[in-house]
Design brief:
317 residues; mainly beta; four-stranded antiparallel sheet; 24 strands
């Protein structure tokens, strides 16, 4: 029996993305969802599904299939236009070491595009494309595991002709970027976490058109683990990052932060009553007054879907 996991869903225009959230717009390509599945031989394969307005269909796409057993997975998707989309993830090489995986849609079919790797085990966690799209600019972010318990941020850029590694800062012994978005070509954000002195803490980096730099981001406490999984911008002065933190009772609670053009601050977000685990993994904004976040919660049983919305000045569950 095949096991399927869909990681990211996108309406193919701009960068309306992140984990099964989309805007109601009409484009020829419709909706795309990416992820991975295990076939009958327990080989892990890339997965893309397409919504044509009526039904979801699996789309044919390539796999590297280098390891034994093969491991190929996609975790993010972004589109510049209906004839240019990108999906990113990772695959294991013949030695079982993780390598970046990038696939491109040209309006007809998906093909693997070469992407560089740093020394170590590499994987992408998210991909986005800046608009307007001339010149082309797309970004993929993730991490490179360099040693046991050590990792560095990984950032790569598509400049219209090739993917290349762009220097990105690190602040801990384990730094991981999980989400990326662009308000414009010279204004992009990447979020994740790093291992602090005692606990994991939020990590936010900003691209100003020339370099990536760490921007101060709040945490609920230096004694609590804090994670940011996704980021979206309604404008250059209104961006949102979501994730979760572990409170004093080691119960995971939703974490929401907002950029107002000057600094990032924590914004209160609800949690289902009685939940022992509430986590947000995706965020998108339809306007300055309306954003949506998605994830899951658990209360001792199977995880349940969790969707929250920001309406003007209040976050509702």
């Amino acid at each position: 029996m095949e096991r399927l996991f869909l990681e990211d869903c996108l309406l193919a225009e701009q960068q309306w993305e992140q984990h099964s959230l989309w805007r109601d717009m009409h484009l020829d390509i419709g909706l795309l969802a990416v992820g991975t599945y295990w076939d009958d031989d327990l080989f892990q394969r890339t997965l893309i599904e397409h919504w044509n307005g009526e039904v979801w269909n699996i789309v044919s796409l390539p796999n590297r299939g280098l390891s034994t057993p093969p491991i190929d997975a996609l975790v993010g998707v972004a589109c510049i236009s209906a004839s240019q989309c990108w999906a990113a993830g990772s695959n294991d090489d013949m030695n079982g070491v993780g390598q970046t995986l990038v696939e491109r849609f040209d309006g007809t079919s998906w093909t693997i595009v070469d992407s560089p790797n740093s020394s170590g085990s590499n994987s992408f966690q998210s991909v986005t494309c800046a608009t307007p799209s001339q010149p082309e600019e797309c970004w993929a972010v993730g991490l490179t595991v360099t040693d046991l318990g050590r990792a560095q941020t990984l950032v790569e850029e598509w400049d219209g002709s090739a993917w290349s590694i762009v220097s990105s800062p690190n602040t801990g012994v384990y730094d991981d970027l999980l989400g990326v978005t662009c308000a414009s070509q010279a204004d992009c954000w990447a979020v994740g976490f790093y291992s602090g002195v005692t606990n994991d803490q939020t990590l936010i980096e900003h691209w100003n058109g020339s370099l990536w730099a760490i921007v101060s981001s709040p945490n609920t406490s230096t004694m609590q683990n804090n994670y940011l999984n996704a980021v979206a911008c309604a404008s250059a002065s209104d961006c949102w990052a979501v994730g979760y933190y572990a409170n004093g009772n080691f119960v995971f609670q939703t974490l929401t932060e907002q950029w107002d053009g000057n600094l990032w601050t924590i914004v209160s977000s609800p949690n289902p009553s009685g939940a022992q685990d509430s986590e947000l993994y995706g965020i998108t904004c339809a306007s300055l007054a309306q954003c949506w976040a998605a994830g899951y919660y658990a209360s001792g049983g199977p995880p349940q879907t969790l969707v929250e919305t920001w309406q003007a000045a209040v976050m509702f569950q």
